[in-house]
Amino acid sequence: MADKVIYAMYDDDNVLKDGAKKLVSKGVKVSEVFSPFPIHGIDPIIGVKNTRLGIMAFIYGLTGLTLATIGMRYFMVVDWPMNIGGKPNFTYLDNILAFIPISFEFTVLCAAHGMAITYFLRNKTLPGMPAQNPDPRTTDDRFVMELRTSENSQFSAEELEAMLKETGIVELDQKDVA
Amino acid sequence: MISYGLIIAGILSLVIGLAVHSGDGDLYVTRIMGGLLSNSYFYFCIALGALFFLALNYATEAGWYAYIKRPIEAIALALPYGAGMLAVVLLVITVMDGAHVYGWMDPELYKEGGHHYDPIAAGKQFYLNKTFFWIRTVAYLATYLIFLRGFRKRSLEEDRVGGTEIHFRNYRKGALFLVFFAVFSSTSSWDWIMSVDYHWFSTLFGWYNFAGMWVSTMVVLVMLVLYLKKQGYLPKVNDSHIHDIGKWMFAISFLWSYLWFSQFMLIWYANIPEEVTYYVARIQDHKFLYFFMFIINFAFPMLILMSRDAKRHAGILTFIGIIILLGHWLDAYQMIAIGSQGPNAYPGFIEFGIGIALAGVLLKLVLTNLTKAPLTPVNHPFLDESIHHDI
Fold first, then answer.
1. Using a CB-CB distance cutoff of 8 angstroms, which residues of chain A are in contact with residue B269?
2. Residue A135 lies in a domain
3. Residue A100 is part of which domain span?
4. How many domains does chain A have?
5. Residue A163 forms part of a structural domain
6. B255, B259, B261: best mutation site toward chain A, by most A Cβ within 10 Å?
7. Residue contact A40–B390, C-beta within 8 A
8. Interface confidence (ipTM) of the complex
9. A97 to B306: CB separation less than 8 angstroms, yes or no
10. Is residue A28 part of a domain?
């Protein structure tokens, strides 16, 4: 089925937000919004699900904590017990205080890197990947709303465009996709 | 109603405690004075934390808090009463030559060649003496109260006249307050709390106390805001405001735990006799109390408040808030009681009685303070931003 993508460009984020609200109340599905900065409050309007990045951060942090504990126990206790400042490391638990800062650092390191890489992968924005925004001006001072006819089968492309024109757009563009 | 109930329950418990322990001799007085000191310090700190938080928001020109500014002010306005109570308790202790709470106030320690001569205390006499102690105490309390008076006066004036001039004056005064507070919050906790263990010292102590103070304030604030919202007084408080205060609770619990650990680990690692005495007294004789206090102040908020939904859930926040308050109350208790009573210290009817009664007084004061000004600071320049706060 031929799918048509309609791009509506705005020059103000609040106008876009009000427009999206109006369209959604009429039953239109907004598939994406491109913006140079996060627009507060747009997520619930266009129905973006809550991010699950936090759960991944927790898992990465736990991984880091486990790796740090296993590593330090092996290096400092099992393989070659270290005697630092008169505190011999014969057991991990007796010296756990000394290991806490490193456990903490490694937890943070793994959580932060894991989150950043997951974010890039999920958004397909790893360095060198092709840009996906429809217009380079959305990285500057323009805001673009994207509608797809396949997701709004109850409306024709002309009806969608007519509705968009009532919401204070500054430019309208459309593209056929296979 | 709740506040009167708390006051009556607290006084009953205090009376029972006084009757039960009346045969304890010297320890009896130490215990009462120590209990009064730790409790008045704890509640004084809740009010002071609110004043600090207000000044912090002024100095950073924060916007989100504007709609809940009056509850913050209401907590801060309990400060004169807290300061008064603290001053009276300190005065009684001073008149009693320390009452074994402030061991360094005992004049016997400074008689050279005497039976109780203490060369370490004598070496600190230029700082730890009654006159200088009172000069500092009066300076701290006066500074706090003067700033509180100014903030409140300008806050009410802003309601009447509006404009941005008052906002910028608050901005400058807030920054000035933070400068004083940075020094005084450290030195006052050395004077009032650390001097209980007058042989011992820790440069982190001021920060440690400051973090405990701040998190207690945020807990009281979130419970107050949730209560007012439930009663319908603050209809425009949304999930984002609650979430933000919840984040403060979570973050400052971590700050406190971090400072607790930093102080502990450095002393543990260096293992210098004059420093470890503090922890020997706490870990050998009061292992359960000390680590229980640490765990409820650290593990509970960490595990339960970690998720986003928990920070927006009134029930969870209140539950965790009460636990954190108890934890920091125990922290204030152990800092003074273990230092002054040694192995015999344990929290009983006396300490809990004073604590519960003062909780009732604080609640009554805060709710009364709320009635004295409109709940919405109508001319705050960031009020609109605060109402539309969204994160």
1. 85, 87, 97-98
2. no
3. 53-123
4. 2
5. yes
6. B261
7. yes
8. 0.77
9. no
10. yes
